[in-house]
Amino acid sequence: MDLWWVFLYTMVIFVPFLLIQISSTFKFHFKIISYCILCVTLSTLAAPVCLLKNGGRTVDNMRIIRAFVRTMKYVFGLRYEVKGLENFRIDGPCVIVSNHQSVLDMMGLMEILPDRCVQIAKRELMFAGSVGLITYLGGVIYINRKQTRDAKSIMAGVARAMTDDNLKVWVYPEGTRNNSGDLLPFKKGAFHLALQAKVPIIPVVYSSYTSFYDRKKSLFSGGIIKVEILPKIDISGVKEADIADLTDRCFHEMRRVFFRLSGKPYTPIKQNASSK
Ligand SMILES: CCCCCCCCCCCCCCCC(=O)SCCNC(=O)CCNC(=O)[C@H](O)C(C)(C)COP(=O)(O)OP(=O)(O)OC[C@H]1O[C@@H](n2cnc3c(N)ncnc32)[C@H](O)[C@@H]1OP(=O)(O)O
Ligand SMILES: CCCCCCCC/C=C\CCCCCCCC(=O)OC[C@@H](O)COP(=O)(O)O
């Protein structure tokens, strides 16, 4: 008799719980796969448009890519509330740094991407089929994160191209995706780049996704993302020896804004947390 009750309780409580878990995991993966399929489809459509309009690899293709990607937010129920767009209105090149939470960031990036702006990306992206092709056509700069020396020499070339071709460069200084609800320590490449090209840095902060997107909890629903483009950081007077301080300053400023936009109380962390 007792065993019968155990069996009944297991069926009534455990089985529905298991089914809910399976269905939310299934829904999460279904949405992520849909996102990837949409990226592949849109890049397959956008590539011929880029080739016909601009002939090959050029930053002008970013305008076409931007138009395609901007339609995706409606599919996933995302809304962007953007503040500080006027801070992008500067003459000439600059380095834009922003936080990087997920593959979904491409939508937030394209929502506010200024003209003549290319991104720095890990070289593995080049091999992602039609997505790789579209990033190549848009002029994305690939770096090998495992080879600091190679990455540095590519960045030095980028500094020259920025001034020669009037390019803005978008860098994710955390160097990888991070959905932890905080910022990772910053790498220094973006700051060296700004110094080498003698251009200002514009920080951009996106609020935390954790309330609507969380891989660990298999959560992916619609939501509002607050975006703030901060005033430029002038690098005149900054020397090579000041790079760590500059990186630190930018990190703490962005982290403060990140907590504010995410509606979380700010918890200070020790100085130099932005260095390796
Ligand atoms: C319709 C279509 C749909 C599809 C839609 C597609 C849309 C098309 C959008 C694509 C969009 C892509 C978006 C991808 C997004 C990523 O792929 S994110 C990952 C790749 N990006 C990055 O990693 C950028 C950030 N990383 C860096 O800048 C790193 O500093 C570097 C350059 C990789 C070097 O890495 P590291 O060695 O691990 O890091 P770090 O501690 O900074 O440097 C080590 C030392 O070298 C020094 N150093 C670093 N850089 C330099 C330098 N340039 N010069 C001199 N010294 C330097 C540092 O000062 C440090 O020395 P110490 O101060 O310790 O003495
Ligand atoms: C023939 C090969 C076919 C491969 C097909 C691959 C299909 C890929 C499909 C969709 C991917 C859409 C992603 C859009 C661009 C995402 C850029 C991105 O967010 O890269 C991650 C990078 O920031 C940091 O990487 P890690 O967190 O260090 O890792």
The gist of it:
This protein is 47% helix and 14% strand.
What does this structure look like?
The protein has 276 residues and is an alpha/beta fold. The protein has a single domain (2-261), classed as Glycerol-3-phosphate (1)-acyltransferase. The protein is 47% helix and 14% strand. It contains 8 helices and 9 strands. Strands 1-9-6-2-5-3-4 form a 7-stranded mixed sheet, sandwiched between helices. A two-stranded antiparallel ribbon has the order 7-8. A hairpin with a 4-residue loop joins strand 7 and strand 8. The protein is globular, with a radius of gyration of 21 Å. The termini are far apart. The mean pLDDT is 92. Keywords: Acyltransferase, Lipid biosynthesis, Lipid metabolism, Membrane, Phospholipid biosynthesis, Phospholipid metabolism, Transferase, Transmembrane, Transmembrane helix.
Structural class: alpha/beta
Bound molecules: Palmitoyl-CoA, [(2R)-2-oxidanyl-3-phosphonooxy-propyl] (Z)-octadec-9-enoate
* Total number of beta strands: 9
Question: Which radius of gyration do the C-alpha atoms yield?
Answer: 21 Å
Annotated CATH architecture = 3-Layer(aba) Sandwich
Oligomer: single chain
Which spans have pLDDT < 50 for at least 5 consecutive residues?
A: none
Order of helices and strands: HHHEEHEHEHEHEEEEH
CATH class category label: Alpha Beta
Number of domains: 1
Q: What share of the residues does DSSP label as strand, in percent?
A: 5-15%
Tally of separate helices:
8
Termini distance? 63 Å
Shape: globular
CATH topology: Glycerol-3-phosphate (1)-acyltransferase
Describe the biggest sheet?
Answer: 7 strands, mixed
Q: What's the pLDDT, averaged over the residues?
A: 92
- Kindly report the spatial arrangement of strands forming the biggest sheet: 1-9-6-2-5-3-4
